[in-house]
Amino acid sequence: MVENQRWLDYLAHAVLILGVVIVAFPVYVAVIASTHEPTAFTSGTIPLLPGANAVETYSGVFEGGIAAQMSVPIGVMLTNSMIMALAIAFGKIVISILSAFAIVYFRFPFRVLAFWMIFITLMLPVEVRIVPTFEVISNLNMLNSYTGLTVPLMASATATFLFRQVFLTIPDEMMEAARIDGAGPMKFFKDILLPMSQTNIAALFVILFIYGWNQYLWPILVTTDDSYQTIVAGIKRMADVVDSEPLWNSIMSVTVLAMLPPVAVVIFMQRLFVKGLVDSEK
């Protein structure tokens, strides 16, 4: 039992505040840098107070006034990232929950082996299998397409494992009761398992949306058409100019705008996200 001592409260709050400062400071610097002149960020002294160029910088980004370093409009890049993040999140959830449903509630030969074969793919992240995956996508003529951007990233051993663990906590009596009432497997899945897994699905959706939104390596590998460029790849291309100095205020403003959709998803689904992570009882 931990005693309730005042100095422990102060220590806990000090550690919490320190952690928040460490995490939030780079974001704060990005926001501040987006409000100054392009050279302020590289002058040797990083400004810590807002500048006077915020309106000019952000309006220039939205109007495409920095075409020399930003060949694709920011709206196109944000749309591509949104499509990619949503497709990966929904695709992973659908595939994983159906896989876990089959593994837990159906009896078929090599069922345990099938689960472990899925589980062992945790040791093969995208970066490890990226060359053969690219070869397959290229042979299927899926380069420069949303299908090529999203399908190879949809299978998820982690999500399958999490849903399997959730389904294992559901009492067998519920399945027996559903069977006595005449419910088939899919009705049991739709009317009982899905409602009971809502918080877990919500928590997983937040994690997978951010995972899909932050993808960098795979999009720049499978897309050469600028119309499929994502916001993360766009930021990298803006910083890679060779015949002029990078416009760091514009780069930071695009970075700030790129953070908004994931932040909005986390805030909007915060309650379900926390409940899905900590609520293990069904």
TrEMBL record:
Keywords: Cell inner membrane, Cell membrane, Membrane, Transmembrane, Transmembrane helix, Transport. One of its GO terms (cellular component) is plasma membrane. Residues 78-269 form the ABC transmembrane type-1 domain. Its main location: membrane. PROSITE patterns: ABC_TM1 (PS50928). The chain crosses the membrane at residues 12-33, 82-106, 113-131, 151-171, 192-213, 247-268. SUPFAM superfamilies: MetI-like. Coiled coil: none annotated. It is found in: Cell inner membrane; Cell membrane. It is a multi-pass membrane protein. The keyword Kinase does not apply. InterPro entries: MetI-like, MetI-like_sf. GO terms for biological process: transmembrane transport. It holds the Pfam family BPD_transp_1. The complex is composed of two ATP-binding proteins (UgpC), two transmembrane proteins (UgpA and UgpE) and a solute-binding protein (UgpB). PANTHER family: ABC TRANSPORTER PERMEASE PROTEIN MG189-RELATED-RELATED (PTHR43744), SN-GLYCEROL-3-PHOSPHATE TRANSPORT SYSTEM PERMEASE PROTEIN UGPE (PTHR43744:SF8). Part of the ABC transporter complex UgpBAEC involved in sn-glycerol-3-phosphate (G3P) import. Probably responsible for the translocation of the substrate across the membrane. Belongs to the binding-protein-dependent transport system permease family. This is sn-glycerol-3-phosphate transport system permease protein UgpE.
